[in-house]
Amino acid sequence: MTATTKTAKTGVARRAAKPKASDAAKRENRTGWAFMAPFGILFALVFILPIIWAIYSSFFRQVTTGGGAYGGGELVNKFVGLQNFQYVVTSGAFWAGVGRVVLYTLVQVPVMIIAALALAMLIDSYIVKHITAFRLSYFLPYAIPGVVASIIWVYLYNGQISPIVKGLAAIGIKVNFFGDNVVLGSMANITTWTFTGYNMLIFLAALQAIPHDLYEAARIDGANGFQIAMKIKLPNVRAAALLAMLLSIVGTIQLFNEPQVMSISDPSISKSYTPMMMALNTSQGTLTPGGDGPASAVAIVMALIAGVLAVVYTLVERKVNAE
Amino acid sequence: MSTAEAIDKESRAAARARKKADKIRDKHANDLPRSMQPSALVKTITIVVLVFALIYFLFPIYWAIIASTKTPSQMTGSNGLWFAVGLSDLPAAIAKNYGTLIGWTRGQFWRWVLNSLIYSGVSALVGTLVAVMAGYATAKFNFRGKNLAIGVIMGCMLMPAALLTIPQYSIFHAMHLTNTMLSIIIPCCVSPFGFFLGRVYAQTSVPNELLEAARIDGASEARIFFTIVLRILAPAMVTIFLFLFVATWNNFLLPLMMVSSDTLKPVTLGLYGMVSLATFTDRGALMMGALLGVLPVIVLFLGLQRYWQAGLAAGAVKG
């Protein structure tokens, strides 16, 4: 094939020859993008653009200019370089919040995942019949919005009205669910109550995808129910557990609803109790320095910490898995 | 078209047969020989654990129902585990607290519930459609930048999305969209998880032969998608719809930032505003609001619960 023979062909023939495949590919490209476009546009507006904007604005801070010692000047955005980040990483309040969230994640997520896995295993064990009622009841709290769940639990923690606190007091146990060392646990309980059933359903779905032939083979080999659970079921839900853990870690990093609601009845929960609360209050100017710049810096540093945590978790999991 | 229907029918028959086989197998699994039956002790422990968990998960809801019938003084004074009045006086107590609730919400309560329904319904509907379209596009077509798009979207699934709310507010503010219904609906339409589910389902349940056959029959791509693919993906769409609906209904931070008018509040934000009033005392009435406000979601839950598990299965198995 030489260039001369190609150009010698008529236009119709040229279209019919080699470029035909690329025409189809072009059409496929167009069709693919056409189906992708609605989601893509919304995704850009809701995810990409805000990320870019957050990074951009984190280099600016609102300052007043022209005013005297008494203020009264005009608010302008001033480029401040890395000052916002410097403020965040040197802020004691920020790291205290990160510490709370990390502690929360380290305790609450494993407790919830293990409880969810245990419940899923028991339900899948066929030891008890009529499991639908149990399954539904465990899942029901997921339908209750976090704010509403928090309000209900705050009342159940309240010594004046809670039958739990009163009941415990009657048998001689005095608890203060808002105590300094207890309040984080009280919050963790709300999250656990809401999401355990949801995670249980994930595990139940994974358990039910295991081929039953495996159980039969194990039984013929003389394995009992407990051995089947440990040796067959557990390894088979590992992938689901990894995903559930990862999503739960991401979820607790943004802890907000529970502390926000609890702070109404417990003034010791500060405006920067968790990084998410700090970001919100910074952006609304109820913390200083306020405004979008410092708030974006808080959010970015927190997102980076979340990313590091997720990577560390994945690496540790892989290492444990390999051993 | 006829090929499409035939394949559809065939796959449905196959699914039915599979289900039947599963059922028979399950039954056999239950009929263990006596030596392998769980011992009475194991059975007792299992029941105790399951019932204990049941109490833990249901008790707060039970308490909220009881509390929703009480006045502030009955809240502190009466037995927290039972109604403060006799059963015959219950309707009057409920009516009284309902009146208090409407009073505290300045008559806006049902408006808030309606707002929540609009936000959740519209976001879930639009969000499901665009997610399934995008999932289908990446599962069945090759286009430039496809792998990049998949990577970015999946990366955002692990992104703490709440952190985005603040920049989202700034952008919507610049577009003069804050304090409108769109400022809640648009962000809630976009779900990387919905995209992921749509993609998994399109990959596993839309046969390529079917698409080829429809193309040979001369159907346009749009027609193929809307008449054939959507029908096959219907169960997946119900799952995605449910996820988006509940996520929007339960979202609190987004409306807290975006909306300030009383008439635009969803029910979560409205109830939160009520509790955070310094003068607020009527906890019983608030519990009634909380219960009435979650009723629509609970109805959806109980009505469509089998779709939850189907969706979670896809995520669990693939993930």
From TrEMBL, chain A:
Map out region (Disordered) in residue numbers.
1-24
- Kindly state which keywords UniProt assigns to this record, in alphabetical order: Cell membrane, Membrane, Transmembrane, Transmembrane helix, Transport
Using the record, list the residue span of the signal peptide; answer none if the entry has no such feature: none
Q: Where in the cell is it found?
A: Cell membrane
Q: Where is the ABC transmembrane type-1 domain?
A: 98-313
Membrane disposition: Multi-pass membrane protein
> Which residue ranges have biased composition labelled Low complexity?
1-14
In terms of one coarse class, where is the protein primarily found? membrane
An example of a Gene Ontology BP annotation on this entry? transmembrane transport
Database matches in CDD domains:
TM_PBP2
Residue ranges crossing the lipid bilayer per the database entry: 33-56, 101-124, 136-156, 190-210, 237-256, 295-316
Q: Which GO terms describe its cellular component?
A: plasma membrane
Pfam families of this UniProt entry?
BPD_transp_1 (PF00528)
Q: Which family does the record claim for this protein? A: Belongs to the binding-protein-dependent transport system permease family.
Q: What is this protein called?
A: ABC transporter permease
- State the organism named in the record: Bifidobacterium cebidarum
UniProtKB/TrEMBL annotation, chain B:
Membrane topology is: Multi-pass membrane protein
Keywords of the record = Cell membrane, Membrane, Transmembrane, Transmembrane helix, Transport
Provide the transmembrane region boundaries: 40-65, 117-136, 148-169, 181-202, 223-249, 284-304
- List, alphabetically, the Pfam families matched: BPD_transp_1
Q: Which residue ranges does the record annotate as region Disordered? A: 1-31
Residue ranges occupied by any ABC transmembrane type-1 domain in the UniProt entry: 113-304
Listed GO biological process terms: transmembrane transport
Q: What's a single GO CC term here?
A: plasma membrane
Q: Which domain of life is it from?
A: Bacteria
| Compositional bias ranges of the Basic and acidic residues kind | 1-13
Query: Which subcellular locations apply to this protein?
Result: Cell membrane
Q: Which family does it belong to?
A: Belongs to the binding-protein-dependent transport system permease family.
- Put simply, this protein is called ABC transporter permease
